[in-house]
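Might you be able to consider the sequence and fold that I enclose below?
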Amino acid sequence: MGAHESMEHAEHAEHASGSNKKIALLISVIALFLALSETLGKGAQTESISKNVEASNLWAFFQAKSIRRTVVQAVSENAKLGLGPIADETAKAALQKQIDEWQKTAQRYRSEPETGEGSEQLAERAKHAEHDRDLAMARYHHYEVASAAFQIGIVLASATIITGMIVLAWLSGALAVTGLAFTAIGLFAPHAVHLM
């Protein structure tokens, strides 16, 4: 091997080393994005599960309040039927007072804004929790797509080092951009693109 060939070989090795460093940097950057999307995905998944449990609990509470209200209303209506035959005014007044109390209780079971535990407020809270659950799930799906794009991008970038095919690095970069786009959609507009 002559000096000229040796120099060409050294230049080629230096060029390949420089390219490999760029690819290694690309892999590192994509791995950072992957870690971010995975972390956001886990957070969104946890939020979705939490809000689903909250919604279920609120609907169960709503049903319990509705049953109590129905029972109290039925007892009150039944007691009203018994008012007519009572001749004793004192007993009649006492029963009417009890009926009024039952009606107040039934109304409180329906609406209790100060505690947020009337059936109307519970239904509103449950719907809000369901909305938050759906939002978190939409985010989670976008982060999952982003993570997949980043993972495939890392594989293609690694393959570039082995094969020397620069087109794989460009595909890897395109997948990184795609992953970033899905991460941004998940963060800022999760309902803009419907994945599931």
